[in-house]
Amino acid sequence: MTATERDGTVADAEERPGYARRWWVLTTMTVCLLVVITGNTTLNVAIPTLQRELGATQGELQWAVDAYIVVFAGLLFSWGVIGDRIGRRRVLLIGLGVFAAGSVLAAFSDSPLELIAWRAVMGVGGAAVQPTTLAVITNVFPAGERGRAIGIWAATAGLAVAGGPLASGAVLTTFWWGAIFLIGVPVAVLGIAGTLAFVPESRDPFPGRLDVPGVLLSIAALAGLVYGIIHAGSGVGWATPGVLVPLVGGALLLVLFVWLQRRSSHPALDVSLFRLPAFSAAAAALGLNFFALMGATFYLVYYLQGARGYDPLQSGAALIPVALGMALMAPRSSRLAERFGAKAVCAGGFVLITLSFLGFQLLDEAAPLWLLVTALSVQGLGMGAVMAPATESIMSVVPREKAGAGAAVNNTVRQVGGALGVAILGSLLATAYAANVGRAVDVLPAPARAEASTSIAATLEAARTTAAQARAAGDEATAAAALQLEDTAREAFVSAMHLTAVGTATASAVAAVVVLVWLPGRRTGARAPSSA
């Protein structure tokens, strides 16, 4: 850093409330971020357990994941504007309270539909918390220190990716499935205490009005698109009205949303920001990064627990290499971006991600553990290389007083990418698995065949139940055929996972091209003018 840059950083810091206790503020923001991300990722390793104990279908399981994400993404715009208007500290406290309440209610759900509803409530709280943490960091830290702070923030997100499944797996070995949602409640209380103690209030001195029609349009558009994709993957086909209507309707609503935002005097989303390459290319990079991360985590859980026979704790532990890779690389990627530019660092990260998913072709039911660890470690390093530079690129062009809206866009593309990753890759996996397992499920009783074809967890559960019932009736031939179905199911799943991993690698390769073509190179330190 030059003497001029240092002087500018000092002068900038003097104008920022809370700067003297900025590292306590950052610590509090990482705790709040842990609440939201861990509260979301705890569901991943519990999916097979939910399928058994709640009797959830494959589509219901995907909605248990996506209900949170769709509501989260739809409300990010409004919470960003509300935070800029009434104060980000206040919104943070509201969001933590709502998220904790939704978590408690989700823990005691009696049906898949009830769980989906309370997951949506959790999304309301999460939409307030996650972007606000980034907005607070942007307001407290001056430009010279913001990259490092965002790197630590991104590293925390990486740790939470594995922390949630690991904690969930540990809880499932002792308690009932609902306890996984209670893990984050005491952490939320700690976040509330830290916010009250250390976080200064900040807001936009010239806030705009809340664009209610825009918010409702965004929710409807996202819900339609994701629902159509999930429904198509459930086996009904892409050309049926139940799929085409929500898909086309969602796309049209999205176009209408953008058209209205461009003409609104108080838009929920300032679409003009997407004309800036540093903003639009970075947003695309984050979206594709989380498309791969969330989608791959969804099918990895089935691989670990279904094909390899891991229990929830073991499968949670198996995801640690991804989190460690992200946690190690994210803080370092900010410094690398300062030296080589966000373009080079993000592109290199996507190359690593692509290679890691191509490496999934070597994984089968009996693949050595070191091979799995290597593939997941490379995936984590690549994703960590993308997160911090892309986030900093977005926030660097957003005026400080609009940090809430900028952080909302940053988190929207992450969550929309994650939702589409789970929906598209989950649908691809389910379709390929159903085709691979084929008529092998005919050994099962007729009522169980349709559901058994949707996922390896359903097939294994049905096969074991059929084998037990056949043995009890003295029908050893049917019992042996049912047990053989387990091996067939594992082979069918691995083949489907290989195809899905190729799709994930393709998305990452496309992201590398997007970054190389459109993302600017080394930063010049320019920032959008602030009216503060």
UniProtKB/TrEMBL annotation:
Keywords: Cell membrane, Membrane, Transmembrane, Transmembrane helix, Transport. The keyword Transmembrane helix applies. Residues 25-523 form the Major facilitator superfamily (MFS) profile domain. Pfam families: MFS_1. It comes from the Bacteria. Its main location: membrane. PROSITE patterns: MFS. It is found in: Cell membrane. The keyword GTP-binding does not apply. GO terms for cellular component: plasma membrane. InterPro entries: EmrB-like, MFS, MFS_dom, MFS_trans_sf. It is a multi-pass membrane protein. The chain crosses the membrane at residues 23-43, 63-82, 91-109, 115-137, 149-168, 174-198, 210-230, 236-260, 281-301, 313-330, 342-363, 369-391, 412-435, 496-519. One of its GO terms (molecular function) is transmembrane transporter activity. PANTHER family: EXPORT PROTEIN, MAJOR FACILITATOR SUPERFAMILY MULTIDRUG TRANSPORTER MFSC. This is Drug resistance transporter, EmrB/QacA subfamily. It comes from Geodermatophilus saharensis.
